[in-house]
């Protein structure tokens, strides 16, 4: 300030209180004092749609999280893979039929499964392949207890964990036995852990796999398992056949003795009753005679019925349709000749009258044919009548003979009741004996045929490549897990990160427009000079362009342009409010406005350091002492830019900032300067910023991108609103160059027209 601009100190002290009250009343009646509706981020509308661009921005932003997790997973998996002992898998294919091949058409003694039991049958075979008895048989056959692979084998981690839950009873039983039983039990467990039974779907094939560090041993074990399984099936069939043969021999001896006794009794009784039999399988002579008469009578009755049917048809007058007439060639020839004559007569009738000689001759021939037909029909009637009478006579005679034979047979049957009883007993014993004898012979033959229902399709060969670990597969799985896990971790961190990241979220939170977006800058020049001044000296830098955009936005923030008294604050310290206040003041002064920069952060002042000025006298000297505004106002290297530093730090900043002298100072500054920019303290935890906001025309909130939490900012805005502070917008600072869309904006737009040889780094 010039000396001509210095106000009288006495007048100021006398008018401090009225001026402060008048300023507050005037601000409450202006548009700037009207509180704007504000909504917290918790009131934002939920959006269920997936923003792929936002996800991609998050991945790019947290690329090092993704890369680190990916590298850790890949290195861990590959290290574990290379440290694992190579395991080789030998495989063998078996074909299991429900029934063995029918070399002999004899039924075996083993039970045959029904068609519906196919699933149960094959499940039983698979469990037999995994049985401990078969495993112990292979172990003993190959002497695996002394093999180095099994002798030094330790249970796997999975097997150890599984044994804690399912193997306690078996271990308890083994402890009760001797050490040899414990050793066999552990050996069997180790054997079965490496054995895999894999049924081939929709087929009768099953694959047997065995895993071992020794490829030769793996192939030997798989082949031994198949041989042992086939031998067990054969032995089971042989054992069943041997038992059946012994049982049948005993029963045959018993039936043989009983059959001999019953045959002797039958012969003695027949001799005593004088019953004659044609043979053991034939009936008696009287019975045979009666059977012959019965057969003859039945035939005679059939003949009589047939003759009677023809006779009744004859009597009914319908002779033309009986078979004898239809099959009589003479009658058919007469009928054919008659038909020709009638046809000729009808044709001549068209020419001649019936009385014409030729017509009379034809009519006489027709009548002659009709007489011959009638004569032949009479002969047929006579033959049918004679045949019917003969059939009746024959039937009556056979009926008499049949009755006589029946009486004779009934008499024999009365005497043969006991004979028949003995005969049936003999037949039953003979049938049982023959059936058992036949079965005994079949079992003997079938038991000696070594046909099995299990066959080897492909024998196990020595594997050339290890089955596991599969380096390529593990690497692929690790890559997928590492990539998606890293992305998931990055998205989780992003979800847990509730800081303000972009202008859009900031606008939703503030309910006001974002006035500026400032990139994060790095030092790339003189290390002794303030970084903000170094960046502002380069008019083409993204930093300078950002604050020029902020200056332009401030010109349209209110109806009257840039507010006369503007406070710059933030939710917490370190967000760039002092830098923003200084950069904005410099840009306004460069535009030709007379600007006063007021450092009102009386707890941690920094403006004097940024400008390289002394801080021996400043705002606190005016508020707490007798200094005049002109005494504490200092010029800067920038034309039309003046600054009032904080001065010595006081013990009571809030009381000084809320005093009437502060209001008077702002009132005087508004009259002497085009714009007053107040570098205010942070909002949270302090009463300074709300007090300053109540006596300034407008407030701009500075927010650090990725550093300011949403709830902190919401709390800060709530405190400012409670003092009727007019917040016109926010400035998002420290935007990283690769931080999503904002980073692209600064890398492309702000670099447009820049130095082609290189530019200062902005990240």
TrEMBL record:
Any one Gene Ontology molecular-function term assigned to this protein's record: non-membrane spanning protein tyrosine kinase activity
Q: Alphabetically list the UniProt keywords.
A: ATP-binding, Cell inner membrane, Cell membrane, Coiled coil, Kinase, Membrane, Nucleotide-binding, Transferase, Transmembrane, Transmembrane helix, Tyrosine-protein kinase
TM ranges are: 66-88, 472-493
Keyword Ribosomal protein attributed: no
Question: In the UniProt record, does the keyword Iron-sulfur occur?
Answer: no
Q: Which Pfam families match?
A: AAA_31, GNVR, Wzz
Q: Where does the signal peptide begin and end?
A: none
**Which CDD domains does this one have?**
BY-kinase
Q: Which residues form the Tyrosine-protein kinase G-rich domain?
A: 422-492
Ranges for the Polysaccharide chain length determinant N-terminal domain? 48-142
Q: Which residues form the AAA domain?
A: 566-703
How does this protein sit in the membrane? Multi-pass membrane protein
Task: For the region Disordered, give the residue spans.
Answer: 1-28
Q: What is its EC number?
A: 2.7.10.2
Name of the top EC class for this enzyme: transferase
The catalytic activity, as recorded, is: L-tyrosyl-[protein] + ATP = O-phospho-L-tyrosyl-[protein] + ADP + H(+)
Coiled-coil zones? 245-317
Show the InterPro entries listed in the entry: AAA_dom (IPR025669), Bact_polysacc_biosynth/exp (IPR050445), GNVR (IPR032807), LPS_length_determ_N (IPR003856), P-loop_NTPase (IPR027417), Wzc-like_C (IPR005702)
**Similarity section:** Belongs to the CpsD/CapB family. Belongs to the etk/wzc family.
Q: Which PANTHER family match?
A: FERRIC ENTEROBACTIN TRANSPORT PROTEIN FEPE, TYROSINE-PROTEIN KINASE
In its UniProt entry, what is this protein called? non-specific protein-tyrosine kinase
């Amino acid at each position: 300030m010039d000396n001509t601009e210095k106000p009288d100190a006495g007048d100021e002290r006398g008018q401090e209180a009225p001026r402060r009250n008048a300023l507050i009343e005037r601000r409450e009646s202006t548009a700037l004092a009207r509180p704007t509706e504000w909504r917290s981020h918790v009131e934002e509308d939920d959006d269920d749609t997936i923003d792929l661009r936002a996800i991609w921005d998050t991945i790019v932003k947290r690329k090092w999280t993704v890369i680190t997790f990916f590298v850790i997973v890949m290195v861990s998996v590959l290290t574990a893979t290379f440290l694992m002992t190579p395991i080789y898998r030998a495989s063998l294919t078996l074909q299991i039929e429900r029934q063995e091949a029918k070399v002999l058409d004899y039924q075996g003694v083993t039970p045959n499964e029904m068609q519906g039991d196919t699933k149960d049958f094959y499940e039983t075979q698979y469990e037999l392949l995994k049985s401990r008895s078969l495993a112990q048989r292979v172990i003993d056959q190959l002497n695996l207890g002394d093999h180095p692979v099994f002798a030094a084998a330790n249970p796997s981690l999975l097997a150890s964990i599984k044994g804690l839950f399912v193997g306690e009873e078996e271990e308890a039983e083994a402890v009760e036995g001797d050490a040899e039983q414990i050793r066999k039990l552990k050996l069997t467990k180790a054997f079965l852990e490496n054995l895999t039974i894999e049924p081939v779907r929709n087929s009768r094939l099953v694959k047997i796999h065995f895993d071992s560090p020794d490829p030769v041993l793996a192939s030997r074990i798989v082949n031994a398992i198949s041989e042992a399984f086939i031998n067990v099936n054969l032995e089971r069939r042989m054992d069943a056949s041997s038992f059946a043969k012994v049982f049948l021999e005993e029963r045959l001896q018993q039936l043989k003795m009983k059959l001999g006794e019953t045959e002797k009794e039958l012969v003695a009784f027949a001799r005593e009753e004088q019953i004659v039999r044609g043979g053991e399988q034939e009936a008696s002579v009287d019975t045979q005679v009666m059977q012959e008469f019965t057969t003859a009578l039945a035939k005679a009755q059939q003949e009589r019925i047939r003759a009677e049917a023809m006779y009744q048809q004859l009597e009914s007058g319908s002779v033309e349709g009986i078979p004898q007439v239809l099959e009589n060639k003479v009658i058919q020839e007469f009928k054919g000749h008659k038909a020709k004559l009638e046809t000729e007569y009808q044709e001549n009738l068209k020419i001649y009258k019936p009385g014409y000689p030729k017509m009379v001759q034809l009519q006489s021939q027709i009548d002659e044919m009709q007489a011959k037909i009638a004569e032949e029909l009479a002969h047929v009637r006579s033959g049918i009548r004679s045949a019917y009478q003969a059939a009746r006579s024959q039937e009556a005679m056979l009926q008499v003979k049949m009755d006589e034979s029946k009486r004779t047979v009934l008499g024999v049957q009365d005497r043969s009741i006991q004979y028949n009883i003995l005969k049936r007993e003999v037949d039953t014993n003979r049938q049982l004996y023959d059936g058992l004898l036949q079965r005994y012979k079949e079992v003997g033959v079938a038991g000696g045929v070594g046909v099995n229902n299990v066959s080897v399709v492909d024998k196990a060969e020595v594997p050339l490549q290890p089955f596991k670990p599969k380096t390529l597969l593990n690497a692929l799985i690790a890559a997928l897990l590492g990539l998606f896990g890293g992305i998931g971790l990055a998205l989780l961190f992003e979800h847990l990160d509730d800081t303000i990241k972009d202008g859009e979220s900031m606008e939703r939170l503030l309910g006001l427009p974002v006035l500026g977006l400032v990139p994060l800058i790095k030092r790339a020049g003189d290390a002794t000079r303030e970084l903000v001044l170094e960046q502002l000296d380069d008019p083409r830098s993204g930093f300078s362009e950002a604050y020029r955009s902020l200056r332009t936005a401030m010109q349209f923030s209110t109806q009257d342009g840039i507010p006369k008294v503007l406070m710059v604050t933030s939710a917490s310290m370190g967000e760039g409010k002092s830098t923003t206040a200084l950069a904005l003041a410099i840009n306004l002064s460069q535009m030709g406005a007379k600007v006063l920069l007021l450092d009102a952060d009386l707890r941690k002042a920094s403006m004097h350091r940024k400008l390289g000025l002394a801080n021996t006298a400043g705002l606190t000297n005016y508020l707490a002492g007798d200094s005049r505004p002109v005494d504490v106002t200092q010029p800067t290297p920038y034309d039309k830019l003046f600054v009032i530093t904080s001065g010595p730090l006081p013990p009571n900043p809030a009381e000084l900032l809320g005093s009437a002298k502060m209001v008077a100072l702002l009132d005087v500054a508004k009259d002497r300067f085009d714009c007053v920019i107040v570098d205010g303290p942070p909002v949270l935890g302090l009463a300074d910023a709300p007090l300053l906001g109540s006596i300034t025309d407008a407030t701009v909130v500075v927010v650090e991108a990725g550093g300011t939490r949403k709830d902190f900012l919401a709390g800060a805005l709530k405190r400012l609103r409670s003092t009727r502070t007019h917040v016109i917008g926010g400035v998002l600072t420290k935007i990283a160059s690769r931080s999503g869309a904002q980073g692209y904006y600064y890398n492309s737009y702000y670099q447009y027209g820049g130095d082609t040889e290189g530019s200062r780094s902005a990240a």
